[in-house]
Each structure stands twice: as structure tokens, then as C-alpha cells.
């Protein structure tokens, strides 16, 4: 079974449509919406932030101790 040569038919279609080889953009049924605030996603983001803050708050003293130790050792060791 021979395979049809599609490249020549595509080139002919491009020549018939004018100077541009790009197809005309598709029209949509729904109108485009402009930028608008999304309260639901804001609420989810704030909830995740507060949840992480509550979970990481008990680790804050340990993080502070490690940071202070690293600053002291950097100050005491000659570079």
C-alpha cells in the first residue's frame, strides 16, 4: 500500500492561504477573563504558611543554637 505524500499538499495549502504559513488562531466560545484576585487560593496559601509556622516553631531554638555556634566558630577560626 503506497503512502501518500502529504508534504506537497501542505505546501500547496500554505501557498493558497497567503503570505503567512501560520494557521489562523482558533476562536474560543468563552470570553477571556482579565486578572482577578483568587480568594480561595489566597486562603489555601495562608493556611499552608500558618501550618508550617506552627510545625517549625518548636525547632526555632535549635536552629538559633546551631546558627550561634556556627557564628562563634567562624569568629574563632583563622581564615
UniProtKB/TrEMBL annotation:
Q: Where are the transmembrane segments?
A: 43-69
Which InterPro entries does this one have?
DUF7535 (IPR055957)
Q: What name appears for this protein in its UniProt entry?
A: Uncharacterized protein
Residue ranges, annotated region (Disordered):
1-26
In which organism is this protein found? Haloarcula nitratireducens
Per the UniProt record, one Pfam family is: DUF7535
| The keyword Transmembrane appears for this protein | yes
- Which residue intervals are annotated with compositional bias (Polar residues) in the record? 1-10
Q: Which UniProt keywords apply?
A: Membrane, Transmembrane, Transmembrane helix
